[in-house]
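Submission sheet (multi-component)
Chains listed below:
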Amino acid sequence: MKKKKLSGGNDALRRPIRKWWWLFLGPVVAAFIIGFVWPFFQGIYLSFCQFRLISDAQFTGVSNYVKAFTDASFRHAFWYTATFALVSLVIINILAFAVAYALTQGIKGSNIFRTVFFMPNLIGGIVLGYIWSMIFDGILSRYGTSILMQTKYGFWGLIILMCWQQIGYMMIIYIAGLQAVPEDMIEAARIDGATKSQTLFKVTIPNVMPSITICTFLSLTNGFKLFDQNLALTAGQPFQIQAGGTAIKTTEMLALNIYNTFYGQSAGSQGVAQAKAVIFFILVAGLGLAQLAYTRKREVQQ
Amino acid sequence: MKKALALILALVMCLSLSAVAFADDEGSVYWLNFKPESDEVLQQIAAMYTEETGVEVKVVTAASGTYSQTLNSEMDKSDPPTLFVIGNTAGVRDWKDYALDLTGTPIAEELNTDAYNLYDEDGRLVSIGYCYECYGIIVNPDLVEAAGHTMDEITNFESLKAVAEDIHARADELGFDAFTSNDMDSSSSWRYTGHMANLEYYYEEQDGGATWTECPPELTGAYMDNFKALYDLCVDNSLVARNELATGGHDAENEFKTGQAAFFVQGSWEYPAVAESVPNATMIPYYCGVEGEEKAGLNCGTENCWAINSKASEADQQATMDFMVWCVTDPEASRMLVDSFGVMPYKQAAESTNGFLAAAEAYAADGCYTMDWATNYQPNVDEYRATLVAAMNQYNADPSDANWDMVKTAFVDGWAAQYAAVNG
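Outcome: structure written.
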């Protein structure tokens, strides 16, 4: 009764909305189910199947998962990806924060710098991969080698590429975070006699923790999910040719490994690739959530 | 503004629904084509056929190198291709359940040879060659003569080597080199891992006494030295040094067209592009030092084989069959297709104008052996070739014996490994 009194005169407007809410919610829910929920669950189901066309799948149980876990190339791709994600996470965030910090100090032309730094993010991954492979080869060919010749070239090449692409994006988030740090807090710190570095570490960084949470989450998951750049830059080369004639693709990351498995012609490879994709999802989701929980704890209330 | 937006969204929704509602019951043709370079001609052919008969023909071309992915997703749709390509034994294994048995059908009656057809293990004719191609070494005879040699000199590996090395040694003085660049990136590496590798498979196949009818579980690698000899000859006597090939970026076709090099490892589909600038261009076999190779011909075969979708409606299958027969019998249509594809092995199809295929026929008429495309049996072909390319890149960076052993491992043991992977 009390509630009704509060809403008062708006009733005439609200009643139809209450009655028709499903019509407004419907399209979004339908799109979400068609575009995400349904494929997601079908994907999980397919990971237990052998199939060529998804409309024509045969249930085979956990054998796909057994094959996925015993696949040496998949394990190699996992460790390679994990190393890559970790290294790129650290470098990208430190550099992005440094650039953001520099560009919020009132330097002349800050806006131009921000725009220019952000721009690489607008180029697609495949194009970037090919552009950078030309740049790297332009340099490496002087020494009679190429990015495809050594694992370390491929690894650091990809790191440089990702830094170039992502720092600008993370920088924008950090700039927004830095601008939200209350001016009076910094002023208070200065009056209390804090040095510049003390202000940075004791006042500014704790206050931009929400940005750090977002940026580390993004760069960690981006690192794990990386595909186009990996494909265009090295496509897994160089390979280590094993005695039996198989090969380990030393710069192949998880997503590319799943793709290559899916479109390979090994017996039942689609099912195995699907199982790898489910493992991949659990891994990325788990790591992402753990990292979110960890950095969230360090956020402070303003 | 919002009203307009809502209206547009509603319209889009209605359109997508009506598209579903108006699917017709009359037979129509949907050809999933795998050769991007033929797309333009096929679209014209499709329009011509629709104009003549009123039957709808849709041609969709998969982007370069993505045919199997595209086929996979298209076949899963409610309106799948009625006509698609099963080009090799791997394709037969993957898609035979979706292919109509073409034995004794009108299109099979039109064929003038059985050489380019593919059968499954039950003897069903699952796909039927609609054109064939050949590959070898394209030569610019004018440049060979400008260097003081004649085409007649080149009859085996020794003589090819002598000519190529002489041209390469005097490249600065002559103004052109022996071979064009031999890039090993994905847009070009198949010229070696797919084509040139065929010489190894072919001679091994001949030693076995009969042509392969299915993928052998392993190779002996008996002719690896011959493969190495020819590959080294191409790479060491070319415009671009070995260690710059891995990431590619060179334009071999253009180098040949502009007279920068006399030899170009390629196939008959290059003829229309090359003949404009080098009208005398001809093609010679892969001479590699095998005994009796003076009688070698070109590598002829095809991956262009039509299959009809057995899961399509009967009306669609019939429409597709009619369309195929029309393609190989209608004078104008077959003329256009032959100009794009090379040779069509059908009784009533137009004659070929392709100089390289003419060379292939001349070799055959001379009593030379035609090398079949044993390379089509490569197991798990993408993985197999990717591994081989990686090994050859290491070898090109440092052409040591140890690195060549790696190539051998990828070539010979890799075959067995991929065979095992494919066959579980």
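Remark: Chain A has a mean pLDDT of 86.
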